[in-house]
Amino acid sequence: MNQADVTKLVSKLRIPVHPERRKLRNPKGPEGRIDKLRKTVTGLIKYERIELNYNRADEARQYAERLISEAIQHGDCHKPTMDIADYWLLEKELVHKLFKVLVPRYENLNSCYTNLLKAPRPQNTRNIEKVVLELKGNPYPPLRNKQSNNKLLIQNVLLDAAKYEYRQSKYAEIADKIGKGETTVDNNQKEKVTEKPSQS
Amino acid sequence: MINLRIYNFIKILKNVERIIFQNMFGGPPKELALAYVNDKRTPEHVKKLSIRDIIGDGILLAVPKFRRTVEKRWKRKYGSPEYVWKMLVPKNNIKVCSECGHHHESGRLCGNCYKKVEMETNEIKEKIQEKLAKTPIDKDVIVLYEGENLPDQPNEFWKGKRIIEMKKERPQWFSRNLLQKSTQQPSTSTDVKPTDLA
C-alpha cells in the first residue's frame, strides 16, 4: 500500500458546506458576485472580525478557508498559491499578513480557521439574517465568553466544593442507614425464627 | 268581393278627382281653411347624457365593482399559516444569557453582550488600522490596555508581535484571568447628594 493519501494531497474544507445555493444577486452577474466575495475575503483578512449578511458570509468563508489552507500547505514560494492570494486579496499588504501572520497562527490547528456566529436579531425590523464572521485567534474580546464553563472560575470552584461536601454528607447518611437497617433486619429474622417453631 | 271592388273603384275616383281639382284650381279655396295653431314642433337633436356632464373638471376615483369574499378579506387581514402568518406568535426559543442574564434567542449571540463586544472591537479595529496603515503586515498584534504590562513570557514569544496600546483601562468583562479586579473603585468625588427631599 504505497499509495499516497488522497485526502492529504487536496486541501479539504473543514467547515460544513450547505447544499442550498446562497442568493447573492448582482447586476453584473457572476463577475460581480465574485468581486463582492473578493471584497469580503479581503475585509475578513484585514479586520479579522466583520458583521455581514448570512449568505455573503457563508460563501466568502469557504473561499477564505480555502485560501488559508492553500497558504499553509504550499507556503509563499509556490507560484499558483501566490496567484490565488494575489487574486483574492485586493489590498496587497494583506498578502504578507496571510503568509507571515496567519500561516504561523494556524499551522498546527486541527479545526477550521474561521468562526461564523449568528448576530442578535433586532426587534421590529426586517428579518435579515446577520452573522459575525471572524478569524480564530483575533485580538478582540471573545464573542462567546465561556467563563461559566471555566472550571477555574472562583464561583465554579466554590460550587464544586459545595457539591462535593453535600455528596459526602449524603453518602455518610446512606451508609448510616444501611448499617442500622441491617441490624433491624437481623432482629426481625431472629424473631421470625423464634416464632416459627412455636407455630408448628 | 263586390264590396271590395266597389270600395276600390270609389277610392280611384276620389284620387282622380283630387288630382284633377288640385291641378286645375290649386286645391280647395283658402277661405275655407281651418284656422289652428300648429303644435307639432320640429324634433330637436336630443343630447345623450355623458359622464363629463356630472364630474365636469373633477376626477373620478376607481371603485370596486364586486364584493371581496370572506376568505380573501381574512387572508389579507390575518395571513395564511402556510405562507405568511400575520398574527403575533409567542417565541419558544428564548434563553437567558449565562454571562449577563439578558434574554436572547437560542443559537444566537446575546444582544447585550454583543453590543459591548462590538463597541470594543470597533475601537480596537480603529486603533490597529491607525497604527498599521498601509505598511505590509508581517507581525501579529497584541492589545494592551492602560496600566498593563506584557504578561510573563520569554522574550522570544514577543519578538514578532506588534503592540497596540489602548488609552483606557481594560473593561471588566474582557479579562483574561480571575485576578483582574472585578468591582468598581470607591469614588473620589466629594459632591454631596441631597437626601430627604420629599
Automatic annotation (TrEMBL), chain A:
Signal peptide: none
Molecular function, one GO term: structural constituent of ribosome
Gene Ontology CC entries for this record: mitochondrial large ribosomal subunit
Keywords (A to Z) from UniProt: Ribonucleoprotein, Ribosomal protein
Cross-referenced Pfam families: Ribosomal_L17
Biological process annotations from GO: translation
Record family assignment: Belongs to the bacterial ribosomal protein bL17 family.
PANTHER family in UniProt: LARGE RIBOSOMAL SUBUNIT PROTEIN BL17M, RIBOSOMAL PROTEIN L17
Name the UniProt record assigns to this protein: Large ribosomal subunit protein bL17m
From TrEMBL, chain B:
Pfam families, A to Z: Ribosomal_L32p
Region described as Disordered: spans on this chain: 175-198
Record localization: Mitochondrion
GO molecular function terms noted in the UniProt entry: structural constituent of ribosome
GO biological process, one term: translation
Keywords for the protein's UniProt record, in alphabetical order: Mitochondrion, Ribonucleoprotein, Ribosomal protein, Transit peptide
UniProt entry tagged with the keyword Plastid: no
GO cellular component, one term: mitochondrial large ribosomal subunit
Main location: mitochondrion
Ranges of biased composition (kind: Polar residues): 175-192
Record InterPro entries: Mitoribosomal_protein_bL32, Ribosomal_bL32, Ribosomal_zn-bd
Function of the protein: Component of the mitochondrial large ribosomal subunit (mt-LSU). The mitochondrial ribosome (mitoribosome) is a large ribonucleoprotein complex responsible for the synthesis of proteins inside mitochondria.
Protein family membership: Belongs to the bacterial ribosomal protein bL32 family.
Identification of the protein by name: Large ribosomal subunit protein bL32m
Protein source organism: Galleria mellonella
